[in-house]
Every structure is written in C-alpha cells, then in structure tokens.
User: Which sequence fits this backbone?
C-alpha cells in the first residue's frame, strides 16, 4: 500500500482541534460506579454516571431512576421516573483522596434531547440506558465542537 491509499490512523486535525504533539485528542469517557446526582439515589435501582473529558473540559452525565419508596416506584423529578442530567465536573479532596464529582449548581442545558422517562416497567431500564447513551453522544459532539471550552477554566487557576 502506498501512502495515498493506506488507511489513516487519525484524521488530519482542524486548526481548532485540540492536539498533544501530532496526536488528535478524543473525548475520554469513564464509566463510574456511583450515582452522580439526586440525594436519594441510593434507593434508585438504576444509576449511571459517565465522566467525559476533552482537553481541559470535564462534564458528568448522570442518570437515575426506578426510585423505590415503601416497595413502590416513585418519581425522581416532575412527572418522571428516570432522568438524565449533565453537570460540570469539579475535583474535591476528602482525607487526602481526590474525587471528581458534579457541581450540582452548574447544570448543562440539553434542550431538544430526551432527558426523562415518565413510566416504569419492563422496558424502562433499557430506555433509560439508551437515553443516557444519547445524551453522552450529544455532549461529546458539543465538547468536540468547542462549545464548552470555557467550562472548568476556574479549576486551572
């Protein structure tokens, strides 16, 4: 194969695409094993928490649902049994250990994309998982387009 027909490992970076040397940055995705929001999340049977990092930008996509109170499902928000929310991420230190967690007062808007499910039942967990993945994809696209370049800037100072 000559160099014109060989598959390229990475696309050519655009002028505004973050790079390290010649390596094009991709969004780093970390699935985490605890809920990212909702004070009663320990009582939710469904919990997803995904940390997304791109350049210096860090955001958390959190989904909770199937909230059980007195052996029955209750809503986690206004008329919804599952919800997905996106927050700015911030480091905190507890007993010398650094944790990256949500800044609950810094929610990212996701207008036009599903963020809630108004029912429980057999298919709801699968729908919630799909909803979470759709929001993750939506946020990654926005991150890689540079929409959040100013987010997390205070962390660096």
Assistant:
């Amino acid at each position: 194969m000559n160099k014109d027909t060989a598959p390229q490992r990475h696309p050519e970076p655009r002028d505004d695409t973050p790079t390290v040397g010649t390596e094009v940055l991709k969004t780093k995705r970390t699935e985490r094993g605890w809920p990212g929001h909702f004070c009663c999340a320990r009582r939710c049977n469904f919990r997803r928490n995904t940390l997304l990092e791109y350049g210096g930008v860090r955001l958390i996509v959190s989904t909770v649902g199937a909230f059980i109170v007195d052996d029955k499902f209750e809503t986690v928000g206004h008329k919804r049994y599952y919800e997905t929310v996106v927050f700015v991420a911030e480091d905190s230190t507890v007993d010398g250990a650094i944790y990256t967690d949500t800044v609950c007062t810094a929610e990212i808007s996701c207008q036009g994309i599903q963020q809630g499910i108004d029912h429980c039942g057999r298919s709801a967990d699968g729908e919630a998982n799909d909803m979470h993945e759709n929001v993750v994809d939506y946020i990654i696209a926005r991150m890689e387009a540079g929409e959040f370049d100013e987010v997390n800037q205070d962390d660096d100072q």
